[in-house]
Amino acid sequence: MAAAPMVVAAEEGAESGGLDLLLPATSELIAGIIAFAIIFYFMWRWVVPTLSATLARRQEAERSRLEAAESTKEEAEQLASQYREQLAGAKDEGARIVDEARQDAESVRAETIARAQQEADEIVSRARDEANAETSRALEEARSTVANLSVDLAEKVVGRSLDREAQMGLVEDYLEELESSS
Description:
mainly alpha; single chain
């Protein structure tokens, strides 16, 4: 029979629809709402602002890190562009130096050739002058020898001594006449 009171209690609970099982008692519900409101108020008053400030500081820190990274990236790009410009400038400078060296070498070469040509011309001129002087000296010597031989020959042919000065004048006049005709 002990089972009978349990069955009766189960029947009574079934009549209320089981809503009592889900909802707490009214006093517990009010106490829970008041406790939730107090906890919510403290959370809203102190925890949420602290949490918001912490999140704001984090966001600011992240933003500053991103800005620093961006500025570092821009700085690196500027350095890279400066390096490229310096490299291009160095290449241009190297090409200019090579061109200047080529021009200098060409001018030295031209100057050396001109100096050598001038020296060669001077040597040829001196050789011609020396040859002309030697030819003149040889002609003068030949003239003198021919004049002496002519006078000696004339003396032997005539058999007497001729005026050497007059005879030399005649021979020289004759030789000049031969030179001018040839």
